Amino acid sequence: MAKKSAAKEKKYVYKFGGGKAEGKAEMKNLLGGKGANLAEMANLGIPVPAGFTITTEMCTVYYKMNRKYPKELNVQIHEGMKHIEKVMGDKFGDEDNPLLVSVRSGARISMPGMMDTVLNLGLNDKTVLGLVCQSGNERFAWDAYRRFVQMYGDVVLGLKPVKKTDIDPFEEIMDELKKEAGVKLDVELGVDELKELVKRFKAAIKERKGIDFPEDPWEQLWGAIEAVFGSWNGERAIKYRSINKIPHDWGTAVNVQSMVYGNMGDDSGTGVAFTRNPATGEKKFYGEYLINAQGEDVVAGIRTPQPINTSTKSSKEQQTLEEVMPRPYQTLESIYKKLEEHYTDMQDIEFTIQKGKLWMLQTRTGKRTAAAALKIACDMVAEKLIDEENAVMRISPDQLDQLLHPMFDPKAEKEVIAKGLPASPGAATGQAVFHADDAEHWAGEGKKVILVRIETSPEDIGGMNAAQGILTARGGMTSHAAVVARGMGKCCVAGCGAVNINYKEKQFEVNGTIIKEGDWISLDGGTGELMKGLVPTIKPELSGNFGKIMRWADKIRKLGVRTNADTPHDSQVARDFGAEGIGLCRTEHMFFEGDRIKSVREMILADSLEGRIKALHKLLPMQKGDFIGIFKAMKGLPVTIRLLDPPLHEFLPHEPAQMQEMATEMGVGVEKIKQKVSSLHELNPMLGHRGCRLGIIYPEITEMQARAIMEAACELKKQGVNVKPEIMVPLVGDVKELKNQEEIIRQVAEETKKKLKVKVNYLVGTMIEIPRASLTADKIAEVAEFFSFGTNDLTQMALGLSRDDAGKFLPAYVEMGIYKADPFQVLDQEGVGQLVEMGVKRGRSTRKDLKVGICGEHGGEPSSVEFCHRVGLNYVSCSPYRVPIARLSAAQAVIREKREKVA
Ligand code: PEP
Ligand code: MG
């Protein structure tokens, strides 16, 4: 009868040990990572101390029932304890042969140190004597008891420091006793003193908490289970989940497991190991251990752990486990091989040897550096452990980023003085300079500099290029500094609000520290950290494994990957990283170099059409030269060139001294310059006279640019160089705008082809970066031969957020969870994503073969790339250094989609 009703009951307890288990590795959601892997090891016949896991579901039920348990749990836990007793041959609460257990948390995803643990549970004034007999070591037994009372008193009974400045009450008692005994270290305390400690600990609990320390092991057990479930909703666990985006309703499992001891004498020990080297990926068993010690001693760093085997030994004095305990070592070797083969991945394992017998306490997928990840994945394919698809899935795209940029020497010391936005990855160290021309000057003298600006503008390009890294006080992830730095593959920390820059004094102040021109500073573009002083960097090597993974990714992916590049040099870098074309060439960047800015300014100042045409005429050969360089670098791959986009005022100086300089150079009065600057002034330039609106009002600009592109293409074609120009009109919101520009472009193109007597195929298309363009994409596609989503502007306009100013409050928005992530960095799939999806669908409803890409900053962000694959884009385009990340992400998107379909 009892059995029948038990069959209907919900199962909350899963047993493991003795060569079998009720759970398995796939049950992580229910059993937590630790519980599922313990079960899996038991099923593999690997020696794990017997135990049971109370499910994560129980945790959720516990909270739903207002911190109470369903009836059936009690029975199931009793059965679980009976199972442990049977396998281990001890008895819970027995005075001669006591079973002692650990009670640990274990969520789906490891949350290191965030939840509670109780060890040595089951000890009391009587069972401690049993442990003395069992271990034959009185000191060990009493030490275990005092540790238990201390841990239980803290975790379950809540005797902890009240204020931050308080000393831990148990430590205080221990220090007192050590003083009385005249000893310095815990290990110098003898049996009598340990007995005294237990007494004093219990008395303190009684006095301060008004609770008698529970002698009943069952009461202890329930108390510990409750504490672990309770710690799921502890302050630090909640905070950790919020930061790491772990859902609060997952709950934690509780693992109750027989204790084994590595501190029972010189035939005992404990250690941690990786099945391959986690730093290099080398196929070598690698780990550390301590004789006669508990797990926490290995981590605490009081004693120096020894290498586990001879092959990783670095000096003669070291005593390896292989030498000291050859039998358990051999068992450990066969187990690690079995585990790696079974999980087909590098494992991070924990073990304990109790009186010569090896026990495995944990196995999990080991964390590794990017270089190790590549090597392990490639080696495992060669070993036929995994296939190419799995290898591609093993590399995290973000991690790949580490490999492409210089990084700080992990051994170097760092003094972080502020934190900004991690705008462009990499590590940079150099002397602070505050003006772009100084950066160029200093760099010209062979110095390493960091350009520090409140924000950057197109005029600063030269200085940015000369600098090792860029630091700005203002601006977000799509600010000028961020976008340009990413394009250059240069480290940038943007929007570092704590930095107060004084251009006049050539210095900045940050949290009380003054940094003057010439002082050394360092930037970590991956974390946003600003450091004082010179922090040495190292250049990571791109090994053959990188190329191998990339080739496999290329075979799998469906999305094309292009690059955003404006110079032949950047185009070449991107090609070396595997770019299959240029998805965005921003022509305005070409207007700043050398003498060009003069002609641009001349055009802007001109009062008549003739004047403008004259100035544009001077620009034409220079632009044409640029396009020739880019077309050549891209060797027949498609090149999307965007017509002029920014408002014209960006090309004019705004400081009085610079205005005067320009006036002298142009031979006009300074008043004229001032007047022009003021007439071009707009309150909201991002929504002002920019994009195609420039070419519509000043068609001669479009004409000149179309001519430069087509003359470059035709001349090269004549020389036998293959070219595929795609001319792109920015900021279109109405098809009539595009039609207007398209007519100019086509007319110039046909004229040029005729004049140069050569056939060149070209496309005319548009950016989709205004919400109205997405909504009317069917009409726009009747004219446009391709679309490229400019998701920087599209995000700005869809969310009503300024690209340049939102950095002030965006980090707070993300921290408060209002936005999941910075929408300028990670595509807002729920909102902006709809505009993209709609644009693709409507566009292809009128032009079936419409080619669609994306060229906003999201084109190199992994989750956004996956989105682009799902909604059927043809390609993504991103800055050169992100090309490999996009290639990998695009392949992972295909694999994930396939796996979801199968599931
Ligand atoms: C965009 O708006 O997404 C884009 C690529 O153009 P820009 O960043 O130059 O405005
Ligand atoms: Mg734009």
TrEMBL record:
Annotated positions binding Mg(2+): E769, D793
Domain PEP-utilising enzyme C-terminal: residue ranges: 543-893
Domain spans labelled PEP-utilising enzyme mobile: 447-528
Domain of life assignment: Bacteria
Cofactor: Mg(2+)
EC numbers on record: 2.7.9.1
Primary enzyme class: transferase
Domain Pyruvate phosphate dikinase AMP/ATP-binding: 29-66, 72-383
Catalytic activity: pyruvate + phosphate + ATP = phosphoenolpyruvate + AMP + diphosphate + H(+)
Keyword Lipid biosynthesis annotated: no
Residues covered by region (Disordered): 304-323
A GO term for molecular function: kinase activity
Active site residues of this protein: H480, C855
Pfam families to which the protein is assigned, alphabetical: PEP-utilizers (PF00391), PEP-utilizers_C (PF02896), PPDK_N (PF01326)
InterPro entries, sorted: ATP_grasp_subdomain_1, PEP-util_enz_mobile_dom, PEP_util_AS, PEP_util_C, PEP_util_CS, Phosphohistidine_dom_sf, PPDK_AMP/ATP-bd, Pyruvate_phosphate_dikinase
Binding of substrate, residues: R586, R642, E769, G790, T791, N792, D793
Key words, A-Z: ATP-binding, Kinase, Magnesium, Metal-binding, Nucleotide-binding, Pyruvate, Transferase
Gene3D superfamilies, per database record: 1.20.80.30, ATP-grasp fold, A domain (3.30.1490.20), ATP-grasp fold, B domain (3.30.470.20), Phosphoenolpyruvate-binding domains (3.20.20.60), Phosphohistidine domain (3.50.30.10), Pyruvate Phosphate Dikinase, domain 2 (1.10.189.10)
NCBIfam families reported in the protein's UniProt record: PRK05878.1, pyru_phos_dikin
Family membership: Belongs to the PEP-utilizing enzyme family.
Name of the protein in question: Pyruvate, phosphate dikinase
Species: candidate division WOR-1 bacterium DG_54_3
Lineage, highest ranks first: Bacteria, Bacillati, Saganbacteria
